[in-house]
Amino acid sequence: MKSYKHCSITVLTMFISALAFAQSDEEGIKQTINSLFNGMRQADTAMIRASFAPGGILQSIGNSKEGKVVVRSEPLDSFIRFVGLPHAESYDEQIVFETIKIDGALASVWTPYKFFVGKKFSHCGVDAYHMVKLNGVWKIQYLIDTRRKQGCDTLPGF
Fold it and tell me: CA 70: distance to chain centroid?
């Protein structure tokens, strides 16, 4: 009986430790992604760059003029330069954390979003991230999104 209680306590302690570790990783992931969008709102290029891993990749899924699905790549430096250019109204991407999956130093994150220029609605979609934990800090390695103007009221969390 004594060894059964000891085993139960050990398993419970391991479970609580794993849960705490996962929660701290989730918070780190959310912090990195939120820093990206705070940087966009503030046109803070250093904050945006700090959210990405070296060699980070940005892509968007959209439609060609013919209506075919296309994937467009944007160099990270071009994106950062664009957001840092003077502009009268802030770029405000509002997200909802829907799914976060973690395996060691790899995370996959899914966030529906609505994008505003100032207070004016621009578009909506979903951001999908692959993140890597480098030197104890979560960084965005790959970000791909969808963009549309219709159907935004059906996004989860909005």
Answer: 21
Kindly report the backbone phi and psi dihedral angles of residue 16, in degrees, each rounded to the nearest multiple of 5, phi listed first: -65, -40
pTM for the model stands at 0.84
As a whole number of Å, the CA-based R_g of the chain is 19
pLDDT at 77: 97
Q: Report whether 100 contacts 34 (CB < 8 A).
A: no
Phi, psi of 122 (to 5 degrees): -110, -55
The residues with which 59 forms a beta bridge, in sequence order, are 73, 144
What are 130-140's pLDDT values in tens digits?
999 999 999 99
Spatial separation of the C-alpha atoms in residues 12 and 153, rounded to whole Å: 42
Q: What is residue 157's predicted lDDT score, i.e. its pLDDT?
A: 86
What is the rounded distance in angstroms from the CA atom of residue 46 to the CA atom of residue 24? 24
Residue 82 contacts residue 76 (beta carbons within 8 Å) = no
Q: How many Cα atoms sit within 13 Å of 47 on the Cβ side?
A: 16
Contact 69, 84 (CB under 8 A): no
Going through the chain in order, the beta strands assigned E by DSSP cover 52-63, 69-74, 91-95, 99-103, 106-117, 120-134, 137-146
**CB pairs under 8 A, 24+ apart, for 6-12?**
none
